[in-house]
Amino acid sequence: MALARPESHTKHTSDWYNFWGTPQWRIYGGHRLWHAPESVPRTYFGDNSPLHLEQHREFVRVTQPTEPTTGIQKGMDIHLATAAAHVQVTHRLRNRNCWTVEFALWALSVMAPGGTAIVPLPPRGTHPEALQPVNTITLWAYTDMSDSRWTWGRKYILLRQDAAATTPQKAGVWVPDGWAAYARGGHLFVTTFEPVPGAAYPDLGCSTEVFTNAEMLELETLGPLVRLQPGAAVEYVEQWFLFRDVRTPANDADVERHVLPHVREAVV
User: Fold this and answer.
1) Whole-model pTM?
2) Among 7, 15, 23, 121, which residue carries the largest CB count within 10 Å?
3) Is the pLDDT of residue 20 over 60?
4) What is the distance between the alpha carbons of residues 55 and 156, in angstroms, rounded to a whole number?
5) What is 175-212 written as a DSSP string?
6) How far apart are CA 18 and CA 14, in angstroms?
7) For residues 115 and 254, what is the distance between their CA atoms, to the nearest angstrom?
8) Which H helix or E strand runs over 247?
9) d(Cα 13, Cα 32) in Å, to the nearest integer?
10) In order of start, what are the domains of the chain with their CATH numbers?
11) Average of per-residue pLDDT values in the chain
12) 154, 108, 107, 184: which is closest to 251 by C-alpha?
């Protein structure tokens, strides 16, 4: 399920209408809802059909027809604040099968090129006091830790989008602080969510993932794995915030100075 401006990701606007009802999956940009873990063909159902829209007093609800290939129905409730740059998105997956299904809600926001993603690591400690591990960093087979787009800081992981890149990059991490961000052109996008300590998460325990290629960067958050009974639904909420006049960070010190004050404002 994807929400985007059609003309921003098609060469000709008329092509958009030819997509309706076609089985091929297309990346339209914007924001989309998937179910994890990623798998072909399950994940890549071609969500090209019109959505059902309901106008409520304080939010808009959009619901996708049930995917015939998975039996899963996707939906979102979108609430825009009236006096702030703040959006609440409630993601919903419903099991329309006659059997139990296991998955995790997976929210993916496609960022415009030229910015930097910021992902916080769990609180740091010192040796010999901190003897036990506090998190894992999940790498994919195509992840190259030596790629110059990465900045592996002590407190934060930064990933820079580069239009000249020739290979994709991806990494995931458990983020107990419940936020991730993207800085570009003086603007800062912050998404917040509620991680569930002790729950099982997909992709070796990831609540947040970042992916980039030459075209864009995806800021991704995930809910815990659930076993959903027939007819049941599960929800997952992201809060989005947008700030202006924010410097794009290049290291931990920049994040602490320019980004973290806005994150604290968002999570209050």
Assistant:
1) 0.91
2) 121
3) no
4) 39
5) -TT-EEEEEETTEEEEEE----TT---HHHH-SEEEEE
6) 7
7) 14
8) none
9) 20
10) 2-267 (2.70.98)
11) 92
12) 154
